[in-house]
From TrEMBL:
Entry keywords, A to Z: Cell membrane, Membrane, Transmembrane, Transmembrane helix, Transport
Species of origin: Edaphobacter paludis
One Gene Ontology term of the molecular function aspect: biotin transmembrane transporter activity
Compartment(s): Cell membrane
Family according to the record: Belongs to the BioY family.
GO CC term, one of those recorded: plasma membrane
Main location as per UniProt: membrane
Membrane topology: Multi-pass membrane protein
Higher taxonomy: Bacteria, Pseudomonadati, Acidobacteriota, Terriglobia, Terriglobales
Identification of the protein by name: Biotin transporter
Pfam families named among the record's database cross-references: BioY (PF02632)
Length: 198
């Protein structure tokens, strides 16, 4: 006599993981934008620069590494669209909405899709001989270079600043914090990779 098998178990065995389905990817991207928004609200204004300290770049780097270059880019475009529609996803230090996308830190915001894509691409392009953590550190550095370049460039254009002034306002005050955020994102990502393969 043949053993009785459940048709439901057969369906489950053939089902794709949630993150490989279109609805699952959409839900994952929306959840990722909420994570960036939560990190944006961890905000510390600085009296000497219009750009606040936030955890946004930490979220951008981590999302790019976890989701990959294409999904990371798309997620950050969705995040900017949410902010443009007036949803409270940007740092509370700014005006919010479209006005925030034209303000002093607009260059940083518009860099996020490229920065996430860079993090996702670099961490996947590194040779296998390089450890996951080292690959993630390099991905974070590459992502941050893009963020600082576009953020500082926009601020220089908006406020008509020279290179020394823009370095003091948009780059130097954030380097130590960025190093911590890169290390944290790399540690979380490498731990996730080990957990997936165990």
């Amino acid at each position: 006599m043949q053993p009785v098998t459940s048709s439901h178990s057969g369906l489950l065995e053939g089902a794709k993981p949630l993150h490989e389905t279109l609805p699952g990817r959409i839900a994952l991207s929306v959840a990722a934008t909420l994570f960036v928004a939560a990190c944006a609200h961890v905000s510390i204004p600085l009296f000497f620069t219009p750009v606040p300290i936030t955890l946004q770049t930490f979220a951008v780097i981590l999302i790019g590494m976890v989701l990959g270059p294409v999904a990371g880019f798309s997620t950050m475009v969705l995040y900017l669209a949410e902010g443009a529609m007036g949803l409270p996803v940007f740092s509370p230090a700014g005006p919010g909405g479209m006005a925030h996308l034209l303000g002093p830190d607009a260059g940083f915001l518009f860099a996020y899709p490229l920065a996430a894509a860079a993090a996702g691409w670099i961490v996947r392009a590194m040779p296998r001989v390089v450890s996951r953590f080292s690959s993630a550190i390099l991905a974070g550095i590459g992502s941050s270079i893009i963020t600082f370049a576009l953020g500082a460039g926009w601020l220089a254009h908006l406020l008509h600043l020279g290179s020394t002034a823009v370095w003091s306002l948009a780059v130097a005050p954030f380097l130590a914090g960025e190093a911590i955020k890169i290390t944290a994102a790399a540690g979380i990502f490498s731990s996730m990779q080990k957990w997936r393969r165990s």
